Amino acid sequence: APHFQFKNGTLHAENLSLTQLAETYDTPLYVYSRQALRDAWEAYRVATEGRNVLVCYGMKANSNLAVLNEFKNLGTGFDIVSGGELARVLAIGADPAKVVFSGVGKQVWEMQAALEAGVKCFNVESEAELTRLAQVAQDMGKIALVSLRVNPDVDAQTHPYISTGLKENKFGIAIEKAVEVYQHAASLPSLNIVGVDCHIGSQITEVSPYLDALDKLIALIQTLASHGIHLKHLDLGGGIGIRYTDEQPLTPSDLLNKVFEMLAQHQLDHLQIVLEPGRSLVGNAGVLLTQVEYLKHSEAKNFAIVDAAMNDLIRPTLYDAWHSVEAVKPRTQGDTLYDIVGPICESGDWLARDRKLTLQQGDLLAIMSAGAYAFTMASQYNTRPRAAEVMVDGDTAHLVRPREPLESLYASESILG
Ligand code: LLP
């Protein structure tokens, strides 16, 4: 990651040393690089230039307002999955006409809030949701703009927990049923069909699963047209992977070059393409900074017990995910294999395993590639306040979310009299 580099033997975020940041803000600490966000966007900007594409940042990956605002200013829309995420995008003054609303379980109040705001599209994932949305819109005297999220039954070749486009997944409407559901949608006066949507998975490294999905969506779009249902946009979801270790993921250009080629072949290049990338915009723009509290050597293992834990970063234990670990000030003498573990009372509380490091108590470690699905998946388990978040911009650090005050974790609870 070019914005997290060693300078004079110390790992930096842009121009600031992580040692300095730990002193100022304490650990565990999320550190983001503003330039890394801009660079990640640049790959999308280049790929979308001169093409009718709307990039809706999949904000579940990292929904800090500073991150959202950066992307808003760069021109993205947003992919939201809850009324809470809608509230965040409205809080930064984003344009609701660039917001798509995904998710299998939209509640009435969430539909109402999104209709009130005027979102670009609801990505509807079931017939029951379609019925509810039509009713909610009708009661409000509004027209809901709708895409169906179809399940194209393709294998994204990624971790089963983050693969979403297979028949057995809970997501979307089976593609064989889609025409029927579209026809039903077309008959409902409070709905206006605008598109089709799919999202096949996350941390995808190849173009081919996207093209398999696109193939099926193109066939669907053609069938719909023969029934007089004409779409304005085609949403291919998110999913472009990042490099955690030695992956060579596809780039936005790899994807869009192929997509536009296929659309042209089928005379469908009038369609707007929507993308919902999350991880690829933020994943490598953040690290989790943590301090070694204790070293513990047993017969079987060497443990570095650090002050970050599974409540801060759950990906390793939840997905067996691999995050690279860097000593902020690497020592030279001799290497030991360490498991990096947190203080939580669970064997699953580990951040990395069998890493060659030379450590002493008090050393700082950076858990890399922690910009996506890291803070947003954090909890307060063991009554641990969620970590602070800092955004570095050149020579300046901005505290974009302070560490949660301990009392705030239980301040709204009450005891029985
Ligand atoms: N659109 C939809 C409908 C989604 O469900 C997702 C992610 C995205 C877009 C963004 O996907 P991305 O570009 O970030 O791959 N917590 C897991 C990842 C879960 C992804 C959920 N959906 C992880 O830490 O790996």
UniProtKB/TrEMBL annotation:
According to its UniProt entry, one GO biological process term is:
lysine biosynthetic process via diaminopimelate
Annotated organism of origin: Pollutimonas harenae
The Orn/DAP/Arg decarboxylase 2 N-terminal domain extends over 40-282
- Cofactors per UniProt? pyridoxal 5'-phosphate
Positions bound to substrate? 279, 315, 319, 346, 373
State a single Pfam family of this protein: Orn_Arg_deC_N
Which PANTHER family does this UniProt record tie to the protein? DIAMINOPIMELATE DECARBOXYLASE (PTHR43727), GROUP IV DECARBOXYLASE (PTHR43727:SF2)
Q: What does this protein do?
A: Specifically catalyzes the decarboxylation of meso-diaminopimelate (meso-DAP) to L-lysine.
What's the name of the protein? Answer: Diaminopimelate decarboxylase
Carries keyword Amino-acid biosynthesis? yes
Family stated for the protein in its record: Belongs to the Orn/Lys/Arg decarboxylase class-II family. LysA subfamily.
Q: Which UniProt keywords apply?
A: Amino-acid biosynthesis, Decarboxylase, Lyase, Lysine biosynthesis, Pyridoxal phosphate
Q: Is this entry keyworded Metal-binding? A: no
Pathway where this protein functions: Amino-acid biosynthesis; L-lysine biosynthesis via DAP pathway; L-lysine from DL-2,6-diaminopimelate: step 1/1
Q: Which GO terms describe its molecular function?
A: diaminopimelate decarboxylase activity; pyridoxal phosphate binding
Which NCBIfam families does the entry link to?
lysA
Q: How does it assemble?
A: Homodimer.
Question: Which Gene3D superfamilies does its entry note?
Answer: Alanine racemase, Lyase, Ornithine Decarboxylase, Chain A, domain 1
Q: Indicate the enzyme's highest-level EC class.
A: lyase
EC numbers, comma separated:
4.1.1.20
